[in-house]
């Protein structure tokens, strides 16, 4: 009874914090361990402790944003029969998923090709099962309010998975942790990771007795993501608190039997390689941990995401070979020390990811782009609904970057690419049609004039270049009659508003009255903010400096009522080009102040902020932005390229209160904007194969993985 009274007191404390608009961290209270014990689970329902703000206090509307590369993935899960592999001269590839959304990170459930996997068909990564006899995949038990699930495994009628729904005690710590649930009975979801501990990439031993995970522990995130600083940790499934570090530095563990673990890490010579640790049948009785692992795969190629065969003689790995562009699945013979290619003989020009092996060692699976001729979704929608954690705030992912709405909200400007293929596209806000402006010129960061329906401001030139690189602010005007014609490329007038000899001018944002632009310029030798005449530009003394200093001020956003300009800056630490925070300033240059997102002024946490793409809500009370506050959600080496896989979207009130996380996944999410104008009915979006562009599977491998070694 005493424990129940303590739990009740904690519930009252949490609700008081919510009412005072203060962040709530369950793990910061000393009763957390009691609340999470299995004994007290029966007395206290943790769902009742989930803080829920009254809807009147929540932001409303629709946020539109991009996820780097995600739109072109088109992942499906495939398998090959290893009794008929390329090793023996013939094979056939069989697709296990249905071509809906993207499907990845699967594991076999049994030998009849049943798999448990992750799919984003419901708007976020959730867990599904597909097997013979099912007309469509079955969604399995998961955390209802979680935006992220990963690496599911079914063993002994239990489902194990990663979820990221519980906010840790401090910022800059991943939300990812390991959970399990019974597939029969009450299906209660139990957290297996200790509170405050970050776990990735689980694996279950052959007997189901032990779990291995890549654990970051309880330390704060250090900004690493090329190779996460995780350790290989083992614990019994019956006693998850009895954890043992079997090897330091390692990720993506996989079991062979109950006494051998393979994992990947970057070797000292720079090559990603597979390593092995071996121990007695009961690792908890072994006293010599952590041990030095044995390197299994040779230098000269990268090897990732291993999957061990139960025969103990082979492992399947994803490889990147020197001079090759694509990631492929190969089988490495542990006794003969040779690789046997698999997917390069089937689909040489596709990337293949994250192999998995059946328990009888006869089937090998992986995920890849499904191909253009395969049944299923073959087009990328211009706008795609994404699950939102806030009831009255919709979320839409665009196929492009830097969205900006027309004054009435009926049209959307975006940049489909940020390279030589970039231009400006205009899309109907229901996603039904799209037109091209300024084809063949690199354009980025659009701002639609709030007072002129057919005027868009943009930056012309390469993105993220030096202060001296020529990038110009352009005013783009087009005729509305062309939107009703059969033309896909719309004639437009391009007026350059900045002088060519002034260097790098970018990231325009138009004032609510349509008369001025705020933008970032490197003309002084430093990237600071300026205000420009929106019609005549700087050619008739129509420009003035807004900020000045030896730092970077960038990505400004004008508030809807015109009284403030928000932007990102490292003026608090000019020597750190990764430390950006939110600042606001009045258009006359007065009342400059910093808005702290990661903690109060003076705390060490705020110095780690990397915040960009700040944008106001239509009522001017909220800011949406991309930030690194939630750390890394999944092992980045297991995904295609993400420049900043720690980038997630957040909202926060203008006074710095009410911080809420909007996205949680393995992607870099950014360039958000809030929908302005009339109501946008998300139920009438044009999805499926009736609208959008062709799904081509064109995305990059991680650009930070190189083969430039001796």
UniProtKB/TrEMBL annotation:
InterPro entries attached to this UniProt entry: 6-blade_b-propeller_TolB-like (IPR011042), WD40 (IPR011659)
Source superkingdom: Eukaryota
SUPFAM superfamilies from the UniProt entry: DPP6 N-terminal domain-like (SSF82171), Tricorn protease N-terminal domain (SSF69304)
Pfam families recorded: PD40
Name of this chain's protein: Dipeptidylpeptidase IV N-terminal domain-containing protein
Organism: Gossypium darwinii (Darwin's cotton)
């Amino acid at each position: 009874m005493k424990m129940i009274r303590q739990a009740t007191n904690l519930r009252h404390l949490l609700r008081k914090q919510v009412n005072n608009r203060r962040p709530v961290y369950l793990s910061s209270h000393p009763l957390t361990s009691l609340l999470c014990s299995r004994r007290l689970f029966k007395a206290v329902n943790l769902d009742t402790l989930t803080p829920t703000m009254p809807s009147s206090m929540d932001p409303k509307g629709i946020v539109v944003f991009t996820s780097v590369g995600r739109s072109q993935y088109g992942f499906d899960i495939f398998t090959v029969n290893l009794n008929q592999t390329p090793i023996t001269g013939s094979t056939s590839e069989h697709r296990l998923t249905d071509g809906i959304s993207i499907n990845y990170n699967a594991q076999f459930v049994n030998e009849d090709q049943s798999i448990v996997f992750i799919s984003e068909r419901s708007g976020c990564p959730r867990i599904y099962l597909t097997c013979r006899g099912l007309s469509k995949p079955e969604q399995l038990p998961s955390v209802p309010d979680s935006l992220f699930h990963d690496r599911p495994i079914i063993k002994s009628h239990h489902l194990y998975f990663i979820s990221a729904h519980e906010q840790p005690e401090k910022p800059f710590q991943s939300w990812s942790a390991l959970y399990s649930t019974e597939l029969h009975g009450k299906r209660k979801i139990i957290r297996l990771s200790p509170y405050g501990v970050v776990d990735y990439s689980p694996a279950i031993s052959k007997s189901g007795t032990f779990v291995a995970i890549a654990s970051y522990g309880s330390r704060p995130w250090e900004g690493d993501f090329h190779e996460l600083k995780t350790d290989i940790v083992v614990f019994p499934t019956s006693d998850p608190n009895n954890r043992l570090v079997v090897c330091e530095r390692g990720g993506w563990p996989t079991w062979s039997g109950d006494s051998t673990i393979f994992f990947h890490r970057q070797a000292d010579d720079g090559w990603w390689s597979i390593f092995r640790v071996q121990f007695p049948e009961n690792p908890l009785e072994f006293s010599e941990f952590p041990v030095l692992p044995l390197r299994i795969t040779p230098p000269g190629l990268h090897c990732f995401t291993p999957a061990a065969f139960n025969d103990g003689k082979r492992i399947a790995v994803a490889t990147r070979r020197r001079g090759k562009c694509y990631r492929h699945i190969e089988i490495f013979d542990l006794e003969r020390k040779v690789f046997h290619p698999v997917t390069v003989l089937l689909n040489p020009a596709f990337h293949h990811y994250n192999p998995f092996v059946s328990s009888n060692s006869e089937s090998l699976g992986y995920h890849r782009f499904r191909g253009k001729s395969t049944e299923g979704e073959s087009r990328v929608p211009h706008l795609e609904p994404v699950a939102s954690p806030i009831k009255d705030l919709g979320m839409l992912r665009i196929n492009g970057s830097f969205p900006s709405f027309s004054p009435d909200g009926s049209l959307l400007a975006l940049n489909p690419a940020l390279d030589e293929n970039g231009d400006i596209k205009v899309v109907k806000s229901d996603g039904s049609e799209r037109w091209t402006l300024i084809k063949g010129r690199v354009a980025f960061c659009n701002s639609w004039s709030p007072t002129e329906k057919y005027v868009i401001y943009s930056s012309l030139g390469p993105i993220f270049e030096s202060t001296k690189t020529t990038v110009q602010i352009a005013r783009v005007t087009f005729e509305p009659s062309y939107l009703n014609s059969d033309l896909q490329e719309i004639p437009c007038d391009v007026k350059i508003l900045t002088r060519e000899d002034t260097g790098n001018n970018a990231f325009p944002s138009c004032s609510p009255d349509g008369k001025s632009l705020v933008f970032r310029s490197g003309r002084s030798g430093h990237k600071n903010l300026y205000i420009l005449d929106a019609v005549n530009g700087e050619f008739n003394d129509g420009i003035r400096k807004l900020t000045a200093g030896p730092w970077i001020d960038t990505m400004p956003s004008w508030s809807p009522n015109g009284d403030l300009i928000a932007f990102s800056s490292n003026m608090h630490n000019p020597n750190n080009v990764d430390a950006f925070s939110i600042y606001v300033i009045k258009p006359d240059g007065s009342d400059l102040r910093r808005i702290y997102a990661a903690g109060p002024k003076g705390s060490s946490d705020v110095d780690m902020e990397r915040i960009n793409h700040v944008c106001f809500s239509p009522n001017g009370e909220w800011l949406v932005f991309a930030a690194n506050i939630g750390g890394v959600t999944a092992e980045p080496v297991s995904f295609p390229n993400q420049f900043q896989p720690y980038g997630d979207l957040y909202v926060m009130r203008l006074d710095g209160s009410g911080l809420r996380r909007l996205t949680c996944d393995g992607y870099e999410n950014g360039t958000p904007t809030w929908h302005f104008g009339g109501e946008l009915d998300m139920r009438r979006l044009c999805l499926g194969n009736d609208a959008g562009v062709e799904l081509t599977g064109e995305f990059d491998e991680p650009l930070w993985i190189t083969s430039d070694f001796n």
